[in-house]
Amino acid sequence: MILIGFMGSGKTTIADALGERMDLPVIDLDEEVVKLAGREIPRIFEEEGEAGFREKEFEALSRTSRTSGIIATGGGVVTYGRSYDFLKNTEQPVIYLHADFETLYRRIEGDENRPLVKSRDQVKALYEGRIEKYRAVADHEMDASLQVNEVVSGILEIKS
Ligand code: S3P
């Protein structure tokens, strides 16, 4: 199962909770990219730009096709053609965690570990440009403004 959604939608938290409930390993793509690069995300952006980061993110994503775990992606994964195509074509269920902009922005505002969180207007433009991409690759959409246990129960219901 692959979780997608904007920054702050709770992909990592929900993936951890699902992994525990379903007794499956959890793979966090941001962590995989950091391991691959041997550097933290802001440094990858500084040294290689967003394009360098996206290529590594695709590499990490494509490796997950050999696992049966719960995969938490980074919020921008749908903006890169190769990753978008991977998500569109994967056999694994892709779940989009959707929430309104205000809810998400409150959760991510001022986070220095997310290089794309700059001004509110810039973040809003990213959010608006991405929604249709998340929807285009997802098999299911969940309301990510709910409590973690409610989102998890909703996803488990889809699965059963
Ligand atoms: C990004 C989201 C981040 C991380 C990087 C870029 C984005 O992941 O991959 O900072 O473009 O939205 P989270 O969605 O886990 O914050």
TrEMBL record:
Alphabetical list of SUPFAM superfamilies matching this protein: P-loop containing nucleoside triphosphate hydrolases
Binding site for ATP: 8-13, 114
Subunit structure: Monomer.
UniProt keyword annotations, A-Z: Amino-acid biosynthesis, Aromatic amino acid biosynthesis, ATP-binding, Cytoplasm, Kinase, Magnesium, Metal-binding, Nucleotide-binding, Transferase
Entry similarity comment: Belongs to the shikimate kinase family.
Binding sites annotated in the UniProt record for substrate: 30, 54, 75, 130
Subcellular location: Cytoplasm
Cofactor note: Binds 1 Mg(2+) ion per subunit.
Principal subcellular localisation of the protein: cytoplasm
UniProt protein name: Shikimate kinase
CDD domains recorded: SK
Listed cofactors: Mg(2+)
